[in-house]
Design brief:
Residues 95-122, 218-245 form a coiled coil. It is a multi-pass membrane protein. The protein is an alpha+beta fold and 639 residues long. The chain has 22 helices and 12 strands. Helix content is 62%, strand content 10%. The strands form 3 sheets. Strands 2, 3, 4, 9, 10 and 11 form a 6-stranded antiparallel sheet that branches.
Length: 639
Amino acid sequence: MGVKKVKKFQILGLKKQVDLITKAIIKNKQIELLKKEKYEQEFKEYKTENPYKDYFSQISDIFSKLKLESNQAELDLIETTKLDLNQLDNFINPIQNKLDKLARISKKIDQEEKRLQNLKKHIYLMRNMDVQLEDLKNLSYITLIFGSLTKERYSRLIENVTNLPILVLEVNSNEERVWFFTFAKKEYEEKAIDILKSANFERIELPDRVTEQPRSILKQADHRLEKIKIIREQIKLEYDKLKHRYQVEIKNYYQKLLFLNKIKEIDNHYYDESNYFFMVSGWISEENEVEFKQKIADKYPEVIYTSQKINDIDAENPPTIIENPGWVKGFSALVKLYGLPKYGELDPSLFFAVTYILLFGIMFGDLGQGFIFALLGYLIINQKISFIKEKSIGQVLMLLGGSSMLFGIFYGSVFSLESIIPALVIKPMDNIMSWLGFTILIGIVLLIIAMFFNLFNSFKNKDYQQAFFAESGLSGLIFYLFILASLAVYAIKGSLLLPLSLTILISVILLAIIFLKEPLGNLVETGSFKIEQSLGNFLLESGFEIFDIVLNYFSNTLSFLRVGAFTLNHFGLSMAVILLINMVSNHAGSLFILVLGNLIIMVLEGVVVGIQILRLEFFEIFSKFYSGTGREFNPIKLN
């Protein structure tokens, strides 16, 4: 659980075994290969011809056009074999020719359908005319112009052309526009067009090859469109025939070509070569290495496999492999919003999941509303809500809903009503100051845990400056605990834990250690008390940093007041819903307000609470121990 340990490996073998080793790497599914930028002596970048690339492109195209589906389980069982490319040609070419022919036919009928639809669009406007369009188009002395105007502009046009040699004939209209023919003498054509343009006339060119009456043309167009539908069905039938006849062979070739093409791509991208040998390196988890190393030794005894543990994390930049329980995975996706754990860094996913669930329940405690969240999660997990595919979302909702239900029982709240069940523990609205103090205590505990996490990370990575002298290290933790203890004793007894002068002295000493963390860190790690920058810059930067650190201790702690504030806000909204219900006299209205009010609270406040918890986690807790600068593990896969 958490970040897995990885090792860097190197494989050296004879060049004739390259494809076999690549095959083993692909089938392992848990190996990341390294692309070399610098080559060992006598080694250079491996380059080999890939005879499968074009064939894979062709078979993929056929695969896609016939809408076939690949079975990943079948891909895992493929053995690397050489294909008879001549036989493959003889198989692919007839199918491709048939598909190309069907594509050409489809393109032609698409164009014809578009033409017919365009024709119908224009001719439909003239459907009430009992005249041959050919007669109108072939007038010897008259120019025919067809188009439309808005009703207002059409009325103005009619008023303005009464004394001009222009005839306007309306053919159709709706609430906004009028479609009409304009007849003008040939010598008056340009003047007529200018007049129409000035009115924002939209001209429509009459389609070619229209000679009959509009109703007859529309009837013929509909008839041809019906024939196009039949042709489309025939084309679909031809595709189905090809799919039924060849799908087994196509899938077989597709799977083999996918595998063989991937092998060649990996060879050319990751391998080095000399005259007789190949070399490849990469990352593998320690637990996976045992089985992989044994397989290589058993199958390819001539191949040399070596591996090493990571000596310098920053220089090697190893990938991060995370393994968490299934119920944590949905929360891991939220952690990734902040960043991936750096190799050697503590994975906060489990801690994040537990605290997120706890804080959500505290801030959104309601038995009924929590049940709805849990029910939604259950439906998503069981795929009853089809538009949400990720089951992890359902798991998150179920856990948050369960926490909300638990705290709803503690608070005695069911669908915003507090009269149905008694409060098992506390009613926050009746104990506001105690409740706010309790949420501050929760924040203090979480911040202390975060500091311990930082100590764990720092000692693990031998970063002694961060471990001993940083604000989240040992010095900062002691300072924070000392101040908290002093304030707690003062609140209880009315006096400080230690005399004021001693309290100030201890506080100053601890802050001075944090102030001097750079030279003190260098002293521990290198034996030299030195500052990397000028003394003036060091004093200025460290002084502002100390001020910021003290302020952060205070603000980080008080930030958890928002946990209590949102709890009270939730009850405040619930009280508003109850108040509205009491203002309505009939039962139906009261029920409607109850349902609507709860929906609004669940949607709006649920989202806000979720975001606020995320803010607390990221800015108040993660900032104490988590860098999130890791690099994701990218294993070699088929697709």
